[in-house]
């Protein structure tokens, strides 16, 4: 039984909502990957079309392979988790059927995933804190501004780390080049003296 794996990498920085629909062929696995910052709430809602002879499994993992959410025979549901560190997270749907690939129709998968500001339920916050509509909107804009500032701060930090790495690499390459030149000069000098002694021993030169 052949097995096909498809991976979609989504380099999303400021897009806080991921809504996608795709067809999942039987006995295949499709994954979506996204980088998310630390301490960010992630919520999602999914729906998989019913197929009597095929079952779909949903699994969400981080780059270390830790399972954040899993659901066998997934058809419709929701999930939520909070990230512990900045990482690449993978959402995988896998369809399995004992009847093979020629007799079973593809399953239609709908995935709506939100994180950060969009994942917060501001209606519940308004009820708990008794906020007016304008205050709720200001709270949402404040959280969005904070998220953007954090994104820029992270980008600046990464840029500084990359610059330090480049400078360190350049310094090491310079030292290695100097060391290589010294070795070559030393080897060439040794060869000159060795050949001179050899030719003197053979009385080819005085």
From TrEMBL:
Its main location: endoplasmic reticulum. Residues 1-19 form the signal peptide. The lineage of its organism: Eukaryota, Metazoa, Chordata, Craniata, Vertebrata. It comes from Chanos chanos (Milkfish). It holds the Pfam family EMP24_GP25L. One of its GO terms (cellular component) is endoplasmic reticulum membrane. Keywords: Endoplasmic reticulum, Membrane, Signal, Transmembrane, Transmembrane helix. The gene is LOC115811861. The chain crosses the membrane at residues 173-195. Belongs to the EMP24/GP25L family. The keyword GTP-binding does not apply. InterPro entries: Emp24-like (IPR015720), GOLD_dom (IPR009038). It is a single-pass type I membrane protein. It is found in: Endoplasmic reticulum membrane; Membrane. This is Transmembrane emp24 domain-containing protein 10 isoform X1. Residues 29-180 form the GOLD domain. The keyword Methyltransferase does not apply.
């Amino acid at each position: 039984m052949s097995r096909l794996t498809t991976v979609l990498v989504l380099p999303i920085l400021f897009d806080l909502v991921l809504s996608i629909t795709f067809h999942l062929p039987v006995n295949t696995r499709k994954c979506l990957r996204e980088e998310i910052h630390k301490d960010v709430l992630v919520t999602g809602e999914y729906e998989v079309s019913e197929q009597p002879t095929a079952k779909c499994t949903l699994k969400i993992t981080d780059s270390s392979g830790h399972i954040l959410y899993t659901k066998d025979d997934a058809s419709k549901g929701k999930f939520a988790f909070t990230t512990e560190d900045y990482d690449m997270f993978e959402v995988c749907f896998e369809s399995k059927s004992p009847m093979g690939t020629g007799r079973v129709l593809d399953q239609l998968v709908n995935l709506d995933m939100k994180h950060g500001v969009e994942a917060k339920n501001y209606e519940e916050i308004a009820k708990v804190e008794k906020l007016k509509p304008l205050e709720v909107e200001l709270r949402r804009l404040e959280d969005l501004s904070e998220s953007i500032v954090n994104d820029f701060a992270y980008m600046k930090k990464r840029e500084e780390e990359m610059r330090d790495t480049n400078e360190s690499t350049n310094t090491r390459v310079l030292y290695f080049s100097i060391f290589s030149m010294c070795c070559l000069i030393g080897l060439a000098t040794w060869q000159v003296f060795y050949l001179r002694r050899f030719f003197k021993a053979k009385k080819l030169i005085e």
